């Protein structure tokens, strides 16, 4: 059995989530450092913050079983980070000089000698190496052997009413290995363990929108409802389609032809091919060409109950259909993880990099930063850096719970979008008017007020906060070079102190489920049947694949030359007409925005009645979309001209 952290789907308007902890990780740093006096290399961050003296319940039994991954640093970790930066920076002479996967492995990967030395050390400690690849060694054994190998004791600790194992101090590796070990994961067992299953469950229960709807923003207003902000609010749209999103974000005649977008999520919908084809046909979208949508799946799945496997089908469906809607000629490869836990998601990301399956990777999953530890963060950063030198960029949803105070009690950013090597995608409420004309956007943040019993007022107007685009200042990463001079000090220094830190998101697109995207999916109905139906959906799980699709258009405009890790280029265009500068009040200070939404009480039909509510837009917890860079929408959203604004490097791949 494996023990690791669980990741959740960001969108489908569920609260987002991903992780990180202890020591700060600046751009290009590792989680390991030397301790010559002890003859050991410190693997910092492997002791979790929750493993305190007060929570210590004593030593774990020596005979207890341990399963870990020992990640390999490669032969030049610092060189990898440096080249990843140079090859991604438009102002660098190395910009666009990407390496192939084989060249990356040869230049920076672990050598056979390093693997042999690490294996010999582990075996000499009494551990068994059960598997190995270019990234890590899979290792099993008992607690006594693990304590010997990693130079720390393992104790039992209480956390949130449960007992988990964790090291009493940071793990170490022999200095004689000369830094070959990047980190070790699995010494702590919070929060859950996984078990193996061979069969995937059916889809989650059905969800459908009730209506009435607007066909475009503001097209349908019912005068019988109370006013809000000085006027009658229109019905929420039925769900934007590809034509509307392409017009809003300046697609022009570009279609993503010749570009491949990868999507990673957990598990795989058994119905994705038929659902995607039917959705495109029914909504007037472009039909899929033979082989245009493909899947790379694991041999088996695990943790289907812990992860809610059926719920991930909707995530995959949204991601695939959104990318195709925005970039209808782009190839899409779905790379499924065996579970929603870090090790399996890292495996999916590594498949993309090792085989260069795509230049653009959309990822709609994550966690809050407090749940991350630097050992896992180091493993993610290494994948992102290897991708960067190959011309691969990773796009992550910024989260659906604003500053996360309402959901966790603590103001914090989301991961792994907090990594300075990933592109964090924030969210907006989008108004597309008649004839697909872009009207405005505001930062996604929703307050809900139900219609009163007598129908004459909105109860508790504007109502409590429900959800909104994630964003904020990382407590663990220093400010990356590309954010200097763009991100205000009020945000970069929001955690106190004098060291500026990484702020997310970097860029944004539509996410508000009240101005969301229409998807088509096979769902489980109460009578036990499986039926295809459409519904409107949102979350930054929508924003990420939309931006991935827009990047495919931009790469086509660059004559196919890869954009790679996009953040340096994204910030290089800051303040230009390439972006819509999104604010809380696009129609003027004090002018509120809202829509009327009608929902089925039972989520799928009118047999139990409907619920009418007013959804106020542009109210994202404590976060604010302001003029210039902000922690709701980053530099803004793609405007007309964005797609053609990225000149390719003089010497591409």
Automatic annotation (TrEMBL):
It holds the Pfam family Peptidase_S8. GO terms for molecular function: metal ion binding; serine-type endopeptidase activity; tripeptidyl-peptidase activity. SMART domains: Pro-kuma_activ (SM00944). Residues 1-34 form the signal peptide. GO terms for biological process: proteolysis. Keywords: Calcium, Hydrolase, Metal-binding, Protease, Serine protease, Signal, Zymogen. Residues 239-650 form the Peptidase S53 domain. Its cofactor is Ca(2+). Belongs to the peptidase S8 family. This is Subtilase family protein.
């Amino acid at each position: 059995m494996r023990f690791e952290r669980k990741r959740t789907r960001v969108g489908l308007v569920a609260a987002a989530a991903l992780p990180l902890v202890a020591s700060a990780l600046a751009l290009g740093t590792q989680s390991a450092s030397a301790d010559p006096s002890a003859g050991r290399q410190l693997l910092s961050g492997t002791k979790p913050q929750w493993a305190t003296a007060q929570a210590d319940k004593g030593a774990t039994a020596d005979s207890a079983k341990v399963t870990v991954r020992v990640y390999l640093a490669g032969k030049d970790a610092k060189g990898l980070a440096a080249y990843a930066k140079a090859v991604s920076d438009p102002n660098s002479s190395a910009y666009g000089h990407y390496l192939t996967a084989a060249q990356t492995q040869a230049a920076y990967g672990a050598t056979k000698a390093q693997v042999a030395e690490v294996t010999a050390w582990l075996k000499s400690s009494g551990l068994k190496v059960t598997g190995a690849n270019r990234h890590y060694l899979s290792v099993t054994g008992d607690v006594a052997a693990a304590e010997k190998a990693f130079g720390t004791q393992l104790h039992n600790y209480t956390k949130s009413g449960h007992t988990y194992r964790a090291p009493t101090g940071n793990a170490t590796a022999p200095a004689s290995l000369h830094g070959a070990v990047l980190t070790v994961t699995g010494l702590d067992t919070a929060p859950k363990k996984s078990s193996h299953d061979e069969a995937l469950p059916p889809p989650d229960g059905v969800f459908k929108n009730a209506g009435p709807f607007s066909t475009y923003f503001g097209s349908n207003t019912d005068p019988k409802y109370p006013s809000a902000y000085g006027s009658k609010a229109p019905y929420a749209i039925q769900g934007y389609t590809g034509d509307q999103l392409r017009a809003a974000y300046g697609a022009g005649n570009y279609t993503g032809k010749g570009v491949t977008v990868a999507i990673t999520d957990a598990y795989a919908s058994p119905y994705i091919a038929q659902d995607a084809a039917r959705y495109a046909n029914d909504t007037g979208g472009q039909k899929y060409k033979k082989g245009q949508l493909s899947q790379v799946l694991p041999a088996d799945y695990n943790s289907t109950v812990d992860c809610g496997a059926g719920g991930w089908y909707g995530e995959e469906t949204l991601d695939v259909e959104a990318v195709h809607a925005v970039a209808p000629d782009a190839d899409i490869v779905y790379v499924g993880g065996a579970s929603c836990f870090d090790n399996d998601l890292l495996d999916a990301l590594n498949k993309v990099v090792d085989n260069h399956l795509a230049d653009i990777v959309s990822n709609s999953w994550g966690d809050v930063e407090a749940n991350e530890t630097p050992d896992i963060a180091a493993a993610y950063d290494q994948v992102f850096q290897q991708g960067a030198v190959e011309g691969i960029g990773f796009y992550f949803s910024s989260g659906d719970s604003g500053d996360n105070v309402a959901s966790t009690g603590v103001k914090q950013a989301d991961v792994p979008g907090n990594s300075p090597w990933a592109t964090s995608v924030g969210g907006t409420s989008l108004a597309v008017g008649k004839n697909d004309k872009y009207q405005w956007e505001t930062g996604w943040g929703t307050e809900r007020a139900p219609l009163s019993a007598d129908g004459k007022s909105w109860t508790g107007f504007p109502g409590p906060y429900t959800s909104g685009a994630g964003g904020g200042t990382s407590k663990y990463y220093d400010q990356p070079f590309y954010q200097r001079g763009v991100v205000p000090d009020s945000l970069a220094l929001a955690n106190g102190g004098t060291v500026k830190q990484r702020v997310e998101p970097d860029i944004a697109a539509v996410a508000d489920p009240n101005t969301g995207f229409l998807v088509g999916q096979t769902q489980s109905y109460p009578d036990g049947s499986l039926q295809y139906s459409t519904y409107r959906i949102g979350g930054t799980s929508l924003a990420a694949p939309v931006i991935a699709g827009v990047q495919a258009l931009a790469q086509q405009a660059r004559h196919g030359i890869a954009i790679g890790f996009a953040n340096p280029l994204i910030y290089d265009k800051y303040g230009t007409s390439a972006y819509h500068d999104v604010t809380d009040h696009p129609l003027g200070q004090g002018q509120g925005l809202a829509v009327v939404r009608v929902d089925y009480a039972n989520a799928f039909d009118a047999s139990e009645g409907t619920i009418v509510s007013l959804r106020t837009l542009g109210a994202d917890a404590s976060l604010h979309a302001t003029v210039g860079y902000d922690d709701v929408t980053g530099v803004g959203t793609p405007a007309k001209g964005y797609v053609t604004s990225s000149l390719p490097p003089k010497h591409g791949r």
